[in-house]
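Write out the 3D structure for:
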Amino acid sequence: MATPQAGKLEIFVWSGKDKKGNKIKGEITGVSPAVAKAQLRKQGINATSVRKKPKPLFGDGGKAITPADIAVFMRQQATMMKAGVPLVQSFELVAEGCENPRMKNMVIDVRDHVAAGGGFADALRKYPKLFDELTCSLVEAGETSGALETMLDRVATYKEKTEALKAKIKKALTYPIAVIVVALIVTAILLIKVVPQFATTFSSFGADLPAFTLFVLKLSNLAQDYYLIVFFVICGVVFTFSKLKEKSKAFADAVDAAMLKFPIVGDIIYKAVVARFGRTLATTFAAGVPLVDALDSVAGAAGNAVYRKAIYKVRDEVTSGTQMNIALKQTEVFPILMVQMVLIGEESGSLDEMLEKVALHYEAEVDNAVDNLTALLEPFIMAVLGVLVGGLLIAMYLPIFMLGSVI
């Protein structure tokens, strides 16, 4: 027979009195009004009214919770615990400052779970899409060792660095893709809407048109006849690609391997993966997680199939007694700098510090690479746009220029 706690969690609006008899009200998460009242009694609140929170007509109006939101949440918790604010009260303060209803509801649910005697890590595990197992394990390690304040600070730093790194990668990939898409849209509009207007004018010339102009006119005719087909084919390809990447592990692994071979972008991804590996392993190892378990967690957070498989190989080698620096070297995918720093760390007993330095080095490398890529792409993209748009304009005005010279 299932316990009441196994039911679906709901948000309840309550009103009542505190221990001093003051009237108060708020929101609480529970599986039923009775369970919500019981949780409030544990907090010293005598609830006179507990009812299910009505849902807005057009949904909760909240945005999806992003990894950046989670990084901010962990930093807020770390800062408040450092300031001596009790854990449950810190949740209340964070919830009050949340503008996103979904984020606020999540924080309130975590607060209620902890206030009822549950663990912080257990509360986070209720949201596996928001908090990965690595984060939950680190928080749990902090609760067990009595060093939750220190651990939350490490987790917050880890989350901030990881999200900053992801943002840089997205910037490196999104900028050129966005400009290419805009260039294609502008070109399509010119071919479908603008060029036909010139074609009508040219039909009255009664003279042969330049080859370049004829080529553009044929492109325009093709664009007018098949633009819907091309649009749906592109949408279908993008949709199929995303679904294959989501459903097929082999396909996703092949895409990860191919991305590493892309010019310029592949080098940025490579440095980002190495930085993430160093940052994650440094955080877990410094938290007192055994090296083999730490490597297991790091593999899941690698972000690239090639390195995930390599890290699992390193874990297996370390389990059999091989030194980590040797295991890393044997994979042939990690830079020699990391191998050397790990060797120094193992010999000096400061592996977490060496990994931290490697992470900082490669994070700086990613910064420089993204900045250089942006600086190189800007003039290149301007040139491409100039050739596309300028070429079409020249093709359209060339017959007019030639006619003027004849006259």
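The chain has a mean pLDDT of 82.
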